[in-house]
Design a protein that fits this description.
Layout (H helix, E strand, L loop, with lengths): L1 E4 L6 H10 L5 E4 L2 H6 L2 E4 L5 H10 L2 H4 L7 E4 L1 H5 L3 E2 L4 E2 L7 E4 L16 E7 L14 E7 L1 E3 L5 E7 L1 E9 L2 E4 L7 H12 L2
Parallel strand pairs: 1-2, 1-3, 3-4, 4-13, 5-7
Antiparallel strand pairs: 5-6, 7-10, 8-9, 11-12, 12-13
Amino acid sequence: MIAIVNYDTGNIRSVTNALARVGCTEWIYTDDKTLLAQADKVILPGVGEASTAMAKLAERGLATFIPTLTQPVLGICVGTQLMCQSSEEGNVECMGIFRTQVKRFQDCNGEPGAAPMKIPHMGWNQITDLRTPLFKGIDEGAYIYYVHSYYPVLCADTIATSHYINGFSGALGRDNFFGTQFHPEKSGAIGAQIIKNFLEL
């Protein structure tokens, strides 16, 4: 059984449709700790503002509970950011699973005379430096879909890299925890393969 964490954020329909596309029809949407602990896999989706989302996790007692899970856990977008140490979005302390911070893109990266770049980073971009079984069968330079203004800084837990204004963690992994800053559920066949890989961990 796949458990999708209910904390009143995230595009649940997109996630469940993506699960269905890879043949997974058994899932629950819950904030019940017992059900989350019993699930074979856990998905932490996220859309919205990090400090608000973190507060919702804390209200349910999930901010300290999720890091104790021992089965494979996948964060998506803001869900991934909440698994980092902290976020500049609302200056909030996060769950600290991944050993990095989340920062806001700075247009031009502060370079004098450079043309400003659009924020949020929205659209198709490449992932490189792929590591871990999450990317089994995925080619270096594959294109995936992003929508974000904040990004996880490159670190020892980075398992895929992307570049927009500066390099950043396209995905993170540590022990049984994985996170994608991109949206696999919106990334076509490549995203479907990544979700399938997660379900097979």
